Amino acid sequence: MKAWLEGSTQDLQYLADHLPAGDIQVSREGEKFYISSPRLDNLPGGSGLLLDIAEDLIESVNGLGRLLNPSFERVALTGAFTTNGDVTVAAAAAHLVVRSQVTATAVVLGPDGAPVPQPPPAATRYIGLAATNPHVAELFKIMGRGEELSWEDLYQVDEVIKHTGRIKAAMGAAGISEAARSRFKRTANYEARHAQTGQSPPANPMELPAAQTMMRKLAIAWLDSL
C-alpha cells in the first residue's frame, strides 16, 4: 500500500534518501512521493483505519526528519492511497513546494573499482526502534509536532530520555555538561511559566536555537545507545 505525501520536494527527498528500507519507507515515483509499511497492508475496515495508521506513521517520520535536519519542514498525507494501481481513497492532489537545494552523494569504491555497499542510514534503525520502544515513539511524536520545536517540546524530550535512565550516558556521548543541561532547564522553565508566575529570567538564559541544537544532539546520542 502506498500512502501519497505532500510537502516540500526537498524535505520529501530527504526522507526518501534516509528511509529507503525498513519498517517504514519513503519512496519517490516520478515527481511524487509516498510512504509504505507492512502496517498499511491488508487492513480490514476500510479507509478510516488506513488513515489512522498512516497518520501515526507520518507523525514518526516527521519527528525523525526534524531530529536529523534542523531545516526540515513537516510533510503530510494527501489522503490518497494506491494499491495495485487502484486509488482506494481519493483526495486532493499533492501540492509540492520547491526549495532550492544542492546535494552530493559520495560513492565509496573498493580496490577493484566497484562501489562498496554501505550500511543502511541510521534513520532506518531509529524509525525501527519506534515500532518497539514506546519511549522512542513518544520522542518522535514530540519532535514532529508544531511548526518548530518549542521550549515545552524540548523540555519534554529531556524528560522522555531521563525516564529511561540513560540520560547521563547520552549526555556524555553528546558532550553535554551538567551545567549546560541545568542552564537549559532553568531557561525552559522560565519560558514556559513566567507569564503565570511572574518569575525572573535566569541570569544567563539559553537561546532557543542553542537549546534545539543541544536537545537534538542529546536525543541522537540516546538513540545510538539503544
Question: Helices and strands in order, then pairings?
Answer:
Layout: E1 2-8, H1 9-18, E2 25-29, E3 32-36, H2 47-68, E4 76-83, E5 86-89, E6 96-97, H3 122-132, H4 134-144, H5 151-163, H6 167-174, H7 178-197, H8 208-225
Parallel strand pairs: 1-6
Antiparallel strand pairs: 1-3, 1-4, 2-3, 4-5
Helix pairs in contact: 2-3, 2-4, 3-4, 4-5, 5-7, 5-8, 6-8
Structure description:
The chain is α+β, with helices and mostly antiparallel strands. The chain has helices at 9-18, 47-68, 122-132, 134-144, 151-163, 167-174, 178-197, 208-225, and strands at 2-8, 25-29, 32-36, 76-83, 86-89, 96-97. Strands 1, 2, 3, 4, 5 and 6 form a six-stranded mixed β-sheet that branches. The chain is elongated and about 60 Å long. The chain starts with a strand and ends with a helix.
Counting DSSP E segments of at least 2 residues, the number of strands comes to 6
Number of helices: 8
- Summarize the amount of helix as a percent range: 40-55%
Q: What value does the Rg take, in angstroms?
A: 20 Å
Low-confidence stretches: 90-110
Distance between the termini: 30 Å
Let me know the average pLDDT: 84
Strand content: 5-15%
**Rough outline:** elongated
The biggest sheet amounts to:
6 strands, mixed
Instruction: Classify the secondary structure makeup into a structural class.
Output: alpha+beta
SSE order, as H and E? EHEEHEEEHHHHHH
